[in-house]
Amino acid sequence: DIQMTQFPSTLSASVGDRVTISCRASQSISNWLAWYQQKPGKAPNLLIYRASTLQSGVPSRFSGSGSGREFTLTISSLQPDDFATYYCQQYDTYSNTFGQGTKLEIK
Amino acid sequence: EVQLVQSGAEVKKPGESLKISCKGSGYIFSNYWIGWVRQMPGKGLEWMGIIYPGDSDTNYSPSFQGQVTISVDKSISTAYLQWSSLRASDTAMYYCAKSADSIQTRWYFDLWGRGTPVTVSS
Question: Which of A30, A73, B53, B91 is most open to solvent, judged by the fewest CB atoms within 10 Å of its CB?
Answer without folding.
Answer: A30
